[in-house]
Automatic annotation (TrEMBL):
Residues 90-344 form the ABC1 atypical kinase-like domain. The chain crosses the membrane at residues 500-521, 527-548. The lineage of its organism: Bacteria, Pseudomonadati, Pseudomonadota, Gammaproteobacteria, Alteromonadales. NCBIfam families: PRK04750.1, UbiB. This is Ubiquinone biosynthesis regulatory protein kinase UbiB. The keyword Cell cycle does not apply.
Length: 551
């Protein structure tokens, strides 16, 4: 019933805000045309309101999951009209706020204080930013009496949004289950992808976890000239409240302001790529919500611009195996070694082993060669995406749920690079970094580093080596006898299995024979009576034996 209720609300929003007008008429499915015609009487918002505005309000109305979809779309200005992109950009930090009185009440409850003045000497009633999951207010914090107060922001989770998120996730799981039952559903692994997303978005509701993520990311970049992470005050952070240093910078989406202050946009775009690959391949811990509302640029040194990152609710991680395969894939791609790319996809299990590697290489080359060594403004991302989807379908490539966050983040990074410096050569910018990382992980330096780290362990185990060697040689000497024992066990198992099948067959035949005797024989004849009793007895005995063996 909850799922049906949610579906009805989505349909209501779709109709009320006239979202069907966003679909080009020549591409509108006939079923949708019929539905819109049948619901001509349904109340709808005014036709004078622009469709882009309606879409933004509708996404806000539907809740956090849908707002995040709008945020992701807003970074792709190359795929959207200017008006639609402008409206969706407001979802990054200009969602309709909720009453400040509820914010103050939540802060007091979470920090177990009577009033805000117990901790904060100043609190701004007007929110600085309002997003899908939380609302942000400025404040001043007095940690030590006699010292100047510290300017901070207080982030507070929106009330009553968890149930909305759970309802939407349940709906997504239902549709994912339907997709999984289709002919090619196994490739998309839709259920696993939604489950991964569910874990991610529910973690975002825990601001204590976000505080820990921010502290870890700050440690990773504490000496960096590329990225600054504000200080977090963990003693004032709870599951619904986060207190963090207030930063002042230019939003990365405000290109005009960056140009006006003389920022080096090329260097900024290159540093953005470097920050992304550093997080992924050096730290295996990356910011996975890098939409423009969460990224700012320092104002102090325009010629040497530095990023400022906020909002650490969604962080991604990679295991060593996936990280290595990804790095090798990138390096092979940058070197235009498409055969190696195809081989790595098969080795990693992303593509089935029966696929013809040479044919897969040709398909990858057809998609990737046209975009190689081209600046971002000359690449049609939509065409590349269609080509990759078609190749994935043709070669049974499975979606990797653990990489979905990384792919989403890469879309953000590519979108930011296109916006800041469209002439950026993404491939040549990233290639030196990845080649160095692969060399450090797989070359002589990697071997030396690994040997140095493991030397104490090897020295500790050295006295045990003679005994381990003796045990190994003894086991090797006993291998023929062990093999013979295994063969005998296998033959015995086969013999027992055949006996079980025989008893099962006799039981079935006995049951059928008993049934035929009961139906067609003359039970007044003593011979038939004896035959019936014997058949039934043998059948019951065999049935008991089969039942015992099954148990």
């Amino acid at each position: 019933m909850k799922t049906l209720s949610r579906i009805s609300k989505i349909i209501h929003v779709f109709l009320y805000y006239r979202l069907y007008e966003l679909i080009p008429k020549q591409k509108t499915p006939w079923l949708l045309k019929v539905m819109v015609t049948l619901f001509f009487w349904y109340p709808k918002t005014s036709k004078k309101t622009h469709s882009a505005h309606n879409l933004r309000i509708a996404l806000e109305h539907l809740g956090p999951v849908w707002i995040k979809l709008g945020q992701m779309l807003s970074t792709r200005k190359d795929l959207l009209s200017e008006q639609l992109s402008s409206e969706l950009t407001k979802l990054q930090d200009q969602v309709t706020p909720y009453p400040t009185s509820i914010v103050e009440q939540t802060i007091c409850q979470q920090l177990e204080i009577n009033s805000l003045s117990d901790v904060f000497c100043q609190f701004e009633q007007t929110p600085i930013a309002t997003a899908s999951m939380a609302q942000v207010h400025g404040a001043q914090l007095s940690l030590v009496e006699g010292q100047d107060p510290i300017k901070v922001i207080i982030k507070v989770i929106r009330p009553n949004i968890e149930q909305q998120i759970i309802s939407d996730i349940s709906l997504m799981l239902m549709f994912a289950g339907l997709i999984a039952k289709t002919k090619e559903g196994h490739r998309f692994r839709a259920v696993e992808v939604v489950q991964e997303y569910q874990k991610t978005i529910l973690n975002e509701l825990d601001l204590k976890l976000e505080a820990n993520n921010g502290i870890k990311l700050r440690d990773n970049f504490k000496d960096s000239n590329d990225l600054y992470i504000p200080q977090i005050y963990p003693e004032l952070c709870t599951s619904k409240v986060l207190v963090m240093e207030r930063i002042y910078g230019i939003p990365v989406s405000d290109t005009n302001a960056l140009i006006a202050q003389g920022s080096d946009l090329k260097k900024l775009a290159e540093r953005g790529v470097r920050v992304f690959f550093t997080q992924v391949f050096r730290d295996s811990f990356f910011h996975a919500d890098m939409h423009p509302g969460n990224i700012f640029i320092e104002q102090q040194n325009p010629n040497n611009p530095k990023y400022i990152g906020i909002d650490f609710g969604i962080m991604g991680t990679l295991n060593e195996q996936d990280k290595r395969y990804l790095a090798e894939n990138f390096v092979a791609f940058f070197n235009r070694n498409y055969l190696r790319v195809a081989q790595l996809h098969v080795q990693s299990g992303w593509v089935p082993s029966h696929i013809n590697v040479e044919e897969f290489e040709i398909a990858i080359r057809a998609v990737c060669d046209p975009i190689f060594n081209k600046p971002l403004d000359e690449i049609s991302f939509a065409q590349v995406l269609i080509g990759l989807f078609d190749t994935a379908r043709q070669f049974e490539m499975q979606v990797q749920p653990q990489l979905v966050l990384l792919q989403k983040t890469l879309l953000y990074v590519e979108g930011l690079g296109r916006q800041l410096y469209p002439q950026l050569d993404l491939w040549q910018t990233a290639k030196p970094f990845l080649e160095q990382w692969v060399d450090e992980q797989m070359g002589f330096r990697a071997f030396y580093k690994s040997s140095k780290e493991n030397l104490p362990y090897w020295l500790e185990k050295a006295p045990e080596i003679p005994e381990m060697l003796h045990t190994g040689l003894t086991n090797l000497n006993n291998m023929p006898q062990l093999k013979q024992d295994l063969v005998e066990q296998y033959l015995q198992h086969q013999k027992q299995h055949r006996r079980f099948l025989l008893q099962l067959t006799l039981t079935g035949c006995g049951f059928l024979a008993s049934l035929l005797i009961a139906i067609f024989s003359n039970l007044d004849n003593p011979y038939w009576q004896v035959a019936g009793v014997i058949t039934a007895t043998v059948t019951v005995i065999n049935a008991i034996k089969v039942w015992l063996k099954i148990r």
